[in-house]
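User: Can you fold this complex?
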Amino acid sequence: MIEVKNLSKAFDKGKVKAVDGVSFTARDGEITGLLGPNGAGKTTTLRMLYTLMNPDHGQVLVDGIDATVDPLAVRRRLGVLPDARGLYKRLTAGENIDYFARLHGIPATQLKTRREALVDALEMREILDRRTEGFSQGQRVKTAIARALVHDPRNVILDEPTNGLDVMATRGLRAFMRKLRDEGRCVLFSSHIMQEVAMLCDRIVVIAAGRVVADESPDALRRQTGEANLEDAFVRIIGSAEGLAA
Amino acid sequence: MNTSLIVFWKELRENLRDRRTLANALLVGPLIGPIMFVMIINLSLNREFSKAEAPLEIPVIGAEHAPNLVAALEQMGLVPQPPVADPIRTVQEQDADAVLRIPAGFAEAWEKGEPAQVEIFYDSSQRDAHTPVNRVRTMIEQYSRQRGMMRLIARGLSPSLVQAVTLDARDQSTPQSRAGLIFGMLPYFFVLTIFIGGMYLAIDLTAGERERQSLEPLFANPVARWRILLGKLGAICAFSLASLIICIVAFAFAGQFLPADKLGMNFDLGLRFGVLALLLMLPLVVMLAALQTLVAAFAKSYREAQTYLSILMFVPALPAVALSVVPVKVQTWMYAVPLLAQQVGLSEALRGARVGAPEVALCLASGFALALVVTVVTALVYRSERLAISA
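Assistant: Here's the predicted assembly.
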């Protein structure tokens, strides 16, 4: 479970408030979607969750552990697909995965079974022994997800996971995320594509200009705004259609 | 397994697969120094020697005014060339290194027993002219002295009367110490090798990783950043150390191709020197790896890091240049200044002087202390939020 309490972060010596008092909870066995237009503060919020950045104010709790008190323990409980998902080009996909597994301190025997399970789930058997140079976008995302989840984390954070993927790869990824949820994990992902969020999420947290403007189930969101169409509901909540893709 | 070691092995394996890094670290970096060195020394020595031994071909104007002088010069190795119309232009345009002119009044002055004048035209800004001009000067002085003595003897006086003081030069330089003068730049070549050997890795492992967006996922792992840094530094050190060892071996090999016999010098670039060089350079391997990483961490991009490091490359040359311009007596405190210590220590060793254990210890202690400071500063920079953010 990931709990975010009153999180704030400013850049340029306080001039630009990227995240301004964000609070929400992502529960185990649920997919939580962080929806917002470009520049709303989604990536900055997630970066504070996986302790790449320190919040100016507020608190992040992962399975009850405070991220500023014990960042290493928090990172151990998280599987992260960051916005930046560069692979090591001169290593094979398998070596990329193994590197992160070793950094997590996973024993060799466990590493093998865990990697096999991910390779099957992500259908990436044929690219496993190829160097990642020249991989397609989809192959790269698969490899990045596999290495992020190789330590079998309870909580999964995915920053715009379907960005740049084709239809087939996107469908595969959605199925994979549902599988993670059904295994009882806490899945938190960000997106600016509302249909995707509506289709996948048990809970939607809408962020605009660094603030949470809605935190509901998709159905509740429609009821609250009085709009039958989800797209109109979002536009009404955010106040403008800017940066939202259908 | 220790996480720093995991990072170390991964970086090593990844970069051993990169031809460009390999070529730079193991070929260009270590070999450019020895090759340049042998070429420069051979070229300059051969020129000096050929000038000193070859027949001296110099245009002589007015040879008919002093046939005896010209005959004597010819005996001493001068080969008179046909006269030229404009001696000033001839030397300025480097058609000849020097031109000798014997004025018409030579014979008349000679007969009267007055100093007879001979003119030599040359351009002292032409390096090539030094040897021939000095040779001509020596020849004429020798002829002048001989004739002067004969005149004294003819008048019944002892030639030693005109020699009030004699000066005996007793050069205390040993063959090694003369070699040391030439080899003043050698320690810098070692520093340069370490620098080039580690440079591509240092840029790649920090600025490069960030640019390729793999630093952020790496930092999402439950590993303290300083441990990651240590692994990366280790990989850089491994490359620059390999580079240094190749360079030292290459220099030992290159020593065989230097015209030691012509120089009348010995240089000991053998095992003893190699081991000492390796030992003295060790702290620099660590320090430069940390320094390069620090610079690469500040740079916004791979290209920017490359620019900064190319400039930084010339900083280690300062002690070598300073010492060759202002020769100073070697003092113990110099071993406490990293870079200067290596320069001084290796120059001493090349001169054949002993570098004692206390000096080596001081050099290592000061070097590793500075390396530690730079490493700690780099670790602090590695903790900054900005470091990991690619976009």
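The first strand of chain A starts at residue 2 and ends at 11. Chain A touches chain B at residues 50, 52-54, 72-73, 75-76, 78, 80-91, 95, 99-100, 102-105, 144, 147-148 (CB under 8 Å).
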